[in-house]
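Problem 12. The chain below contains 147 residues. Write out its predicted structure in token notation.
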Amino acid sequence: MILKPLRQKSKTFIFRSFDNHDSDEPAKIIFTRFPMPNEDYPMAEQKAVLDSDIMKSLDNSPEFRETLVDHMINTMVSNIMAGKVDYRRFFNECVERIEDLTYDGREIKTIDDFYNHLPEEASFTIAQEAHAYAKEADRFTAEYKKK
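Solution.
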């Protein structure tokens, strides 16, 4: 069998947000690699209340009830966050650099520049678009070798 690429993503990504794509010199995100299909970059790990050490030390004291309520709230927050993408972690693991992006007179070249100098809404919007692009699957076709 011969595996041939029909469409492979470019490691250079020109995002569309903020009319960047229509610019004479659009800003680019340069990927070092693309995430595997099972890499989700969750902001937190999903947890179960009943599997915690707190539940193993169950008693009916007021201190325990307060600890249990705090634990349940923290678990709910973690589980909500587990469904969200940690875009900074994604950038740290998959992006090499940023090219041709300037904000407020400052060149944005590194991931730290991207997150420390761009407004939060702008970095979120661009990172969300880059993540969606990176998660797109390449397309391949297979041919069988002739004997």
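Discussion. The chain has two domains: 10-41+88-136, 49-82. Students who got a different answer should revisit the alignment rule from Section 12.3.
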